[in-house]
Amino acid sequence: MAELAPNKAPETAIRGARFLLWLEAWKSFKKNKLAVVGLIIVLIFVFLAVFAPVITPEGINEQKLAERLQPPSSEHWLGTDDFGRDILSRIIHGARISLWVGFVSVIGSIVVGCFLGILAGYYGRWVDTLISRFFDIMLAFPSMLLAIAIVAVLGPSLRNALIAIAIINVPNFGRLIRSKVLSIKQEEYITAAKAIGMRDRRILFHHILPNSMAPIIVQGTLAIATAIIEAAALGFLGLGAEPPTPEWGKMLADSKDYLVQAPWTMFFPGIAIMLTVLGFNLMGDGLRDALDPRMKN
């Protein structure tokens, strides 16, 4: 059956309705004080990451051995490390790396996971069985252990750590979008779209995917926090960023031998990781409550 010419009026009405729903969700989000706090924390770190070259007091790799392991002072607000490098400068530049890894890895996971999840949920049968068993196999391994194995095969580097983090998160998004597609494809408007001969690609990308974005956004926000922790863990194990890259996990690994002598070398990078993860978690919880009011209580 040939596909009928699309009527623009209903699509415009649908877009308007979606806009109103997102506007209502934003109003609900603003009422959640913890979510707003999380958003502010995230925006602060994003600001630091974007303008890091402008606001850092010193070069991130500038070594001053005469000033090594100096405590926090007016000259070095967060002290110096074992090479005399300013810790504040390295933490600010480290924000660029951690956020970049978090955002890029999660975007990659969303793209691949959503593609596989949509295929599994919409077409079903052997396609669903094959993709679902693939997800089950990946989820059978502890995520961190799987990431370590992937980096061990590809070789230690920040890029390979990013790839590993993206891969281990694919099943989470794939199963989420699959369950959403299984629910949406039973709706009457999907049945009507098929009845008038609308192509599968148009149904998937104009009807099913837009109506599945709310849980993906929530899960993606929370996944960024997890990705930052995983990147720091790989860096701490020596499987992520290489010296002298100011990655937070690598900074923790380099300063572990000075925990008693200079505790600030570990304390401040750890605080940076904790605050960033806390910000994304609070924001994710707020988005979940705003986009799915049933989850509030």
Give an overview in words.
- The chain is mostly helical.
- It is 72% helix and 0% strand.
- It has a single domain (27-52, 63-295), classed as MetI-like (MetI-like fold), CATH 1.10.3720.10.
- It contains twelve helices and no strands.
- The relative contact order is 0.16.
CATH architecture: Orthogonal Bundle
Mean pLDDT over the residues: 86
What fraction of the residues are assigned to beta strands by DSSP? under 5%
Rg over CA atoms, rounded to whole Å, is 23 Å
Contiguous runs where pLDDT drops below 50 for at least 5 residues: 1-5
What form results from the Cα inertia axes? elongated
SSE succession: HHHHHHHHHHHH
**CATH fold assignment:** MetI-like fold
Distance between the termini: 47 Å
Number of helices: 12
The largest sheet, given as strand count, sense and whether it forms a barrel, is:
none
CATH H level: which superfamily? MetI-like
CATH class: Mainly Alpha
Helical residues, percent: over 70%
Judged by helices, strands and strand pairing, the structural class is mainly alpha
Task: Tell me the domain tally.
Answer: 1
